Amino acid sequence: MLRPPPLRPGDVVRVIAPSSPFAEGPFEAELQVLEGRLGLRVRLRGDLRARDGFLAGPDPRRLEEWREAAADPEARAIWCARGGFGASRLLPWLDPAPLLARPRLLVGFSDATALHALLNRAGLATVHGPVVTQLGKLPPAALDHLAALLAGEAPHPGPWGTPAPGAGLVGRATVVAGRASGPLLGGNLTMLAHLCGTPFAARLEGAVLLLEEVDERPYRVDRGLTQLRLAGALERLAGVALGQFTRCDEGALSGAAVAREACRALGVPVVEGFEAGHDDLNLAVPLGARATLVAPSPGEEGPPRLLFDEGAVEGAAAPRGGDARA
How much is the average pLDDT of 179-199? Predict the structure, then answer.
């Protein structure tokens, strides 16, 4: 798996809108997070704010924007403005070759899961992380984590078993105890399910699967997981890391509980409650890079955790926080 070079202050980042349109108001302030907090130079097209119904402009506009960003000789990263829907419409015409020839980071989540699946299949590590329209809502801890991940820093380890910022995530609870290592893949559940049966479906054999969701009723969460299971995508997983299931509850039934029980039946280590997804605290993770899922048994020391064995960028290897056994 190719990993792009680290981002450094002054690097150019191309902001693109491959999915849905966004409100103009707060966007300038959110761009300032890229420029001020992360020290990056933003480059974007004048028609970034285009609107064509539920899309950020017609397919040709969004496709040409992607191609320009991928061909930009100065750009070190491509950052999605927002999610929504539309990226999967472009997949048949997106060529990963320019990003493989000169690896650069892709940052985004939600609808960008389709882009991650394409690039991860092609052999490029990417970053499942905040879109631009989410940056202004991130708490300082999430920005520190994001900055460390993008820069490939090796921060000081936390307490025993706890990954440092940029080196991993801490979950809420073990669902199925055990340890599993493999490429970290996945993203939005609905997008992964909708890619089933297409040439762009994620290849999940041996992977630690990250799942998150938003605004889907519990039965729809089950439907997405059933789709993946019937397609055979969940048969040879190494483990499952369940992220945020935001606004997925209906009455006493929660989407997170539905996902928990469906994944419990897979017979692999499962941890729930990772802060990755559509809540304001959205911690970035490196997709395609190798990770270790630690799901402690009762009485075992350390929290449930996801350790980034490889960072999102070349030369980065996350410290273990003293957990030599992981």
Answer: 98
